[in-house]
Design goal:
mainly beta; three-stranded antiparallel beta sheet; 0% helix; rod-shaped; Os02g0184100 protein
Protein backbone atom coordinates (compact mmCIF):
# COMPACT_ATOMS: atom_id res chain seq x y z
CA UNK A 1 0.00 0.00 0.00
CA UNK A 2 1.44 3.36 -1.01
CA UNK A 3 0.84 6.40 1.18
CA UNK A 4 1.37 9.82 -0.30
CA UNK A 5 1.33 13.19 1.44
CA UNK A 6 1.11 16.37 -0.62
CA UNK A 7 2.53 19.40 1.16
CA UNK A 8 2.34 23.05 0.11
CA UNK A 9 5.63 24.77 -0.74
CA UNK A 10 7.11 25.49 2.67
CA UNK A 11 10.54 26.98 3.13
CA UNK A 12 11.74 24.38 5.59
CA UNK A 13 10.21 20.94 6.09
CA UNK A 14 11.76 18.45 8.47
CA UNK A 15 10.51 15.24 10.01
CA UNK A 16 11.61 12.77 12.64
CA UNK A 17 10.18 9.47 13.78
CA UNK A 18 10.25 7.52 17.03
CA UNK A 19 9.26 3.86 17.23
CA UNK A 20 8.03 2.03 20.30
CA UNK A 21 7.35 -1.70 20.63
CA UNK A 22 4.64 -2.71 23.09
CA UNK A 23 4.11 -6.36 24.03
CA UNK A 24 0.76 -7.49 25.41
CA UNK A 25 0.79 -11.28 25.32
CA UNK A 26 -1.52 -12.15 28.22
CA UNK A 27 -4.78 -10.67 26.98
CA UNK A 28 -4.71 -10.15 23.24
CA UNK A 29 -1.56 -12.02 22.18
CA UNK A 30 -0.49 -9.18 19.94
CA UNK A 31 2.68 -7.21 19.54
CA UNK A 32 2.15 -3.76 18.16
CA UNK A 33 4.59 -1.22 16.86
CA UNK A 34 3.71 2.43 17.41
CA UNK A 35 5.49 5.02 15.33
CA UNK A 36 5.21 8.73 15.99
CA UNK A 37 6.18 10.98 13.10
CA UNK A 38 6.74 14.68 13.80
CA UNK A 39 6.55 16.97 10.77
CA UNK A 40 7.75 20.55 11.30
CA UNK A 41 7.04 23.15 8.61
CA UNK A 42 8.28 26.74 8.64
CA UNK A 43 6.79 29.45 6.43
CA UNK A 44 8.48 32.81 6.95
CA UNK A 45 7.49 33.56 10.55
CA UNK A 46 4.76 30.90 10.96
CA UNK A 47 5.46 27.37 12.13
CA UNK A 48 3.24 24.31 11.84
CA UNK A 49 3.78 20.97 13.55
CA UNK A 50 1.94 17.77 12.76
CA UNK A 51 2.22 14.62 14.84
CA UNK A 52 1.17 11.44 13.08
CA UNK A 53 0.74 8.20 15.00
CA UNK A 54 0.78 4.91 13.14
CA UNK A 55 0.26 1.54 14.77
CA UNK A 56 0.95 -1.85 13.23
CA UNK A 57 -0.24 -5.08 14.84
CA UNK A 58 1.64 -8.35 14.58
CA UNK A 59 -0.24 -11.50 15.56
CA UNK A 60 1.35 -14.23 17.65
CA UNK A 61 0.68 -17.88 17.01
CA UNK A 62 0.74 -20.49 19.71
CA UNK A 63 2.75 -23.58 18.93
CA UNK A 64 2.26 -26.72 20.95
CA UNK A 65 4.72 -29.58 20.97
CA UNK A 66 3.43 -32.99 22.01
CA UNK A 67 6.09 -35.49 23.04
CA UNK A 68 5.24 -39.16 23.50
CA UNK A 69 7.58 -41.20 25.68
CA UNK A 70 7.67 -44.98 25.66
CA UNK A 71 8.85 -46.38 28.94
CA UNK A 72 9.90 -50.00 29.30
Amino acid sequence: MLHCVVLPPFHNVSHSSISHIHIDVNESRHIYLSRFININMNVENARMTYIVKRRKYLGLRSYFCVLFLRIG
